[in-house]
């Protein structure tokens, strides 16, 4: 279920697009200025609701991209079938008419899909910040825009070369010359497309990759497990999930990430694993860690932070303490529960704990953390089920608070949207849910 803000925004922007396309008039300087102002207001409104997180799901709406060889072969076939305008009895005139029309058709058949991609692939700026991070993590910084830009360059090239050769065809003096000019034009366009069409195939790969990304639902409260690698996060996701958690594969992760669901009194929650965080600076973090930070930064998540004080997870307790303090400070506004995991190992006589580190340099804070974790942490063992019931009830309590948070956030989004709408209305750009561009352009 989408929230009201989502629907309102969607309806508005669709209507806007339709009006823009429907009421195109060659613009005077003044008109262009007004039009730009409208666009800027729309862009700001879009960008601000984007920041607010009301519109994930862009990847699922990406258009199907046709492989470049298929675009080319279908365009060649369609262009060949174009006949000259009826009623031209002069052979030379008829043939040059045919040649120009066929070349024009070929150019359009090649350029139209490319234009569709330019128009339907979302501008990265307008993506939900979480999806924007995924685009960067998956495709590399700047690559998405680069490929889209190159596809558009190809469209421009096809258009200009097509027009140039169609004009040459239209000037042919004889049937033979028309045929030769047509063949030369077709060859040229075919050559360009064969050489540079690979960029369309790159776009196809991009669309496939992004479409395969796990879908997040911003309306469902989500519990996000965070901690160093091997501290027991996935094991906790399994015991907290009702039903079997799915494995989500983000394209840049080597391991799948568990995504489970918790149901309680008709309310559904999501619980998700994140790849572990290591003790290092942001610049040194790998994509798996960046994904964790993107989830925490951009999705309305409640945190279940897992601490393994046994010393057997591979990250020392003191390093875990450093990571914890940094993350806790960075995401202090999140609802939060701390868990000390693998507590069965603490009950054994000689746990692996404390064996690996020199504790003589511990300050009081670290010494305390080493023994019991952060204040209020729940001790849990997946092996012996110790603390599991307490954990479940605390998690449900927290997720119920998260429901309220999301509702408050949604109503503030709604208010903001209404404010933007009212401001556009007062400026005369909006009329009962649609942007009135005619009015804005003064051309009604
Ligand atoms: N003794 C013990 N081992 C555990 C417990 N929870 C997890 N483990 C083990 O710790 C290792 C890492 O667990 P996993 O859930 O994959 O950690 P993640 O990398 O944080 O997701 C696995 O070998 C688990 O079997 C626990 O409560 N007790
Ligand atoms: Mg795991």
From TrEMBL:
On whether Transit peptide is a keyword of this UniProt record, the answer is no
Q: Where is the Nucleolar GTP-binding protein 1 Rossman-fold domain?
A: 288-344
**Which SUPFAM superfamilies has this protein been placed in?**
P-loop containing nucleoside triphosphate hydrolases
List residues of the FeoB-type G domain.
222-280
Q: Which Gene3D superfamilies match?
A: 1.20.120.1190, P-loop containing nucleotide triphosphate hydrolases (3.40.50.300)
Q: Tell me the GO molecular function terms.
A: GTP binding
What are the residue boundaries of the NOG1 N-terminal helical domain, all occurrences included?
A: 59-217
- Protein name per UniProt: OLC1v1014836C1
The organism's lineage is: Eukaryota, Viridiplantae, Streptophyta, Embryophyta, Tracheophyta
């Amino acid at each position: 279920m989408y929230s009201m803000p989502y629907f309102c925004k969607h309806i508005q922007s669709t209507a806007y697009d339709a009006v823009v396309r429907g009421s195109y008039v060659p613009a005077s300087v003044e008109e262009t200025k007004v039009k730009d102002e409208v666009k800027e207001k729309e862009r700001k409104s879009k960008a601000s609701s984007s920041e607010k997180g009301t519109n994930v799901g862009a990847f699922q709406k990406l258009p199907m991209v046709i492989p470049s060889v298929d675009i080319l072969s279908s365009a060649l076939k369609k262009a060949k079938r174009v006949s000259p305008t009826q009623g031209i009895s002069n052979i030379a005139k008829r043939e040059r008419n045919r040649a120009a029309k066929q070349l024009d058709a070929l150019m359009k058949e090649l350029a139209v899909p490319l234009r569709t991609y330019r128009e339907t692939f979302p501008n990265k700026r307008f993506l939900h910040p979480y999806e924007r991070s995924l685009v960067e993590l998956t495709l590399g910084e700047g690559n998405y825009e680069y490929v889209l830009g190159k596809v558009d360059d190809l469209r421009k090239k096809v258009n200009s070369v097509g027009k140039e050769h169609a004009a040459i065809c239209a000037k042919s003096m004889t049937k033979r010359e028309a045929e030769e000019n047509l063949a030369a034009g077709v060859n040229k366009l075919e050559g360009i497309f064969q050489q540079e069409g690979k960029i369309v195939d790159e776009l196809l790969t991009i669309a496939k990759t992004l479409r395969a990304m796990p879908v997040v639902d911003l309306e469902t409260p989500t519990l996000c497990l965070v901690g160093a690698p091997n501290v027991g996060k996935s094991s906790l996701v399994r015991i907290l999930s009702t039903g079997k958690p799915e494995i989500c594969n983000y394209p840049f992760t080597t391991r799948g990430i568990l995504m489970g669901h918790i149901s309680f009194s008709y309310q559904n929650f999501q619980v998700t694993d994140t790849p572990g965080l290591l003790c290092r600076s942001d610049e040194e973090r790998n994509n798996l860690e960046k994904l964790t930070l993107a989830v925490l930064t951009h999705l309305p998540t409640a945190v279940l932070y897992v601490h393994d004080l046994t010393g057997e997870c591979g990250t020392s307790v003191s390093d875990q303490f450093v990571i914890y303090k940094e993350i806790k400070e960075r995401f202090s506004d999140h609802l939060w529960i701390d868990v000390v995991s693998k507590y069965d190992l603490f009950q054994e006589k000689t746990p692996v704990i404390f064996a690996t580190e020199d504790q003589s340099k511990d300050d009081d804070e670290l010494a305390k953390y080493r023994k019991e974790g952060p204040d209020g942490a729940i001790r849990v063992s997946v092996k012996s089920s110790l603390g599991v019931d307490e954990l479940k009830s605390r998690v449900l309590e927290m997720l119920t608070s998260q429901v309220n948070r999301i509702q408050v956030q949604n109503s503030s989004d709604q208010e903001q949207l209404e404010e933007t709408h009212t401001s556009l209305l007062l400026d005369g750009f909006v009329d009962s849910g649609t942007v009135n561009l005619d009015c804005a352009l003064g051309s009604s």
